[in-house]
Write a structure and sequence with these properties.
This protein has about 450 residues and is α+β, with helices and mostly antiparallel strands. The protein has 16 helices and 15 strands. The protein folds into four domains: about 110 residues, Immunoglobulin-like (Sandwich); about 80 residues; about 120 residues; about 120 residues, Glutaredoxin.
């Protein structure tokens, strides 16, 4: 699959006549064959060019006319390993550890990137010092201790303020200036004595320096990352009801600040819907969905909404959607089945190579186990139906259901299935009790029962 993608990229793009180059080296060396270059445009990644990685190095010519902005080097599509950098009509040279790319990246060429990396390198320790002193202030027990903490805090605050001013001046007129200004955190001039007051002030001032309509910031992950930090890291509680209330308040704050920037709202809301659906947080999915359905109709992705709703139908603890089929001309259904302690619903395809490995393993593992019934739904196109019919002769103990129209199959939609194989374990009442990622995890589940 990866090789086919690379061939496609070669056909649709050319690296000839490049104005500038981005060169890099992986330290330590790792066996990655390709380096792909993309330009970020909000939530989208637009392919630019590629180069093979030889002796841990690569060199990619950036075609003439490519606009300045945030670019991404991707070397492992499966595990989403990448490193971001600023491109502003200048050559870029960098090194990084492929196991922790964005934390380890160093630039030997590119004034813009050097300034930003130096900004992070110099300001982060001072900010961490301020945070540590603030925590100490919460715990301070006497006036003298509070005074010493306050003096140290004010000194660090002054240092950080001067550094911020220096880097903003140094980057003036450059793309990196947008990120430096937006990265400036709010810090009170004096440490706050009560933790609740401190948290409240951080929330109130969190977006002070972030322009949510700034095109440079929007064409990167910066704003998305900051909004997720605000929602998920500043709003926590051990009490589930309080936690949900804080989430809702934080999302309301973000949506009010985004206002009519509908493209940003769409990106943020779809990200939140995906996250909460993965967590099976039905209450929060419904909350975000209410915002999403207020977007202009042309921006709403109905297939995405359907997928999210499908995922919620199989949340742990819910009754699994029914599956219908005929057997000897008699209508049958999942909900009609009885006599087993567990039911496994397996979505697979006769054209899926991984399925052809996993399904025999599943069959052998459960063969002879009278406490478990398997409903195997084959997601097929008409052209693959004959192949499916041949395959199921190897699984006589399964209830084999033909899932016509493959990804458009109604049962696949009902279960929110978008990959094969996908497994669900149900109890005797057809309630979803587990969603193992593969047969190995499914086997572990039953071995522990």
């Amino acid at each position: 699959m990866f090789k086919r993608l690379v061939v496609l990229f070669i056909l649709i793009g050319s690296v000839a006549n490049g104005q500038h180059t981005v060169k890099g080296e992986l330290q330590p060396a790792e066996n990655y064959p390709w380096m792909l270059l993309y330009q970020l445009k909000g939530a989208k990644q637009n392919y630019v060019a590629y180069d093979s990685i030889k002796n841990s190095t690569f060199s990619i010519a950036i075609p003439k006319g490519k606009t300045p902005g945030i670019y991404r080097l991707v070397y492992d599509l499966k595990n989403r390993l990448f490193v971001d950098f600023i491109y502003a009509d200048e050559d870029v040279a960098l090194t990084f550890d492929p196991k922790k790319p964005n934390e380890s990246v160093q630039f030997s060429v590119s004034e813009q990137n050097k300034i930003y990396r130096n900004y992070i390198k110099e300001t982060q320790p001072v900010q961490q010092r301020l945070d540590s002193l603030q925590v100490l202030c919460f715990k301070a027990s006497d006036t003298k201790e509070q005074e010493n903490i306050a003096n140290a805090y004010q000194k660090s605050h002054k240092t950080l303020t001067l550094l911020q001013q220096q880097f903003e001046a140094q980057s003036n007129g450059k793309i990196t200036n947008h990120f430096i200004k937006a990265s400036a955190r709010y810090n009170a001039e004096n440490p706050v004595k009560i933790s609740a007051d401190y948290l409240s002030s951080v929330k109130d001032h969190f977006f002070d320096n972030i322009d949510l309509n700034n095109e440079v910031l929007l064409n990167s992950t910066f704003i998305n990352d900051k909004i997720n930090d605000f929602i998920f890291y500043l709003n926590t509680s051990d009490d589930k009801k309080v936690h949900t209330k804080l989430y809702k308040e934080a999302i309301a704050t973000v949506m009010a600040k985004i206002s009519t920037n509908y493209n940003l709202a769409k990106d943020i809301e779809e990200g939140l819907l995906y996250t909460f659906a993965q967590q099976e947080n039905i209450s929060m999915v419904n909350t975000v969905l209410n915002y999403y359905l207020q977007l202009p109709t042309e921006l709403q992705d109905r297939a995405f909404i359907s997928d999210i709703k499908g995922q919620l139908k199989t949340a742990i603890g819910t009754i699994a959607p029914n599956i219908l089929w005929t057997e000897n001309n008699n209508p049958q259904s999942l909900h009609m089945l009885d006599g087993a302690s567990y039911y496994v619903v397996a979505f697979w395809s006769s054209t899926c190579g991984h399925c052809l490995i996993e399904m025999p393993v599943l069959y052998d593992f459960l063969k002879g186990n009278t406490k478990v019934k398997v409903i195997a739904v084959g997601l097929e196109e008409e052209a693959s139906k004959a192949g499916w019919e041949t395959q199921i002769t190897s699984y006589p103990n399964f209830i084999n259901v033909y899932g016509e129209n493959k990804w458009e199959n109604k049962f696949a939609h009902g279960y929110g299935v978008n990959a094969t194989p996908t497994f669900f374990v149900l109890d005797a009442q057809k309630k979803v009790i587990a969603k193992p990622d593969d047969v190995a995890e499914l086997k572990l589940f039953f071995e522990e029962q």
